[in-house]
Design brief:
Elements lengths: L4 H11 L5 E6 L2 E6 L2 E6 L3 E5 L14 E6 L2 E10 L6 H14 L10
Length: about 110
Amino acid sequence: MKYNETLALRVAERLMHIQDVEEKEMFSGLIFMVNGKMCIGVSKNSMMVRLDPNTLENLSDKDGWQQMVMGGRPMKGYVSVSEDVLGRNDELDFWVNLALAFNPFAKASKKK
């Protein structure tokens, strides 16, 4: 299993009301692109959430997340949320809604 298919289905259900959603397999997982921008990713045991970097300080009371790190450097605006806390619908909804709230302000990747 490349990614948690059950979690991916739960995320897809929450995005089905949005017109411009595309699923792409990349980074050994499933990425949900919203309006042409990376929004949420599902891997084997976690979910990547793209959010406003300024909201990190407001998440100190939330369990099961950490800022993503690539090449030893923190990835600004990306967190990884453990699947352990995503079993509850209200927790999954919280993180999906956080990603969707930031999506209109997120920059799209440059087309190659």
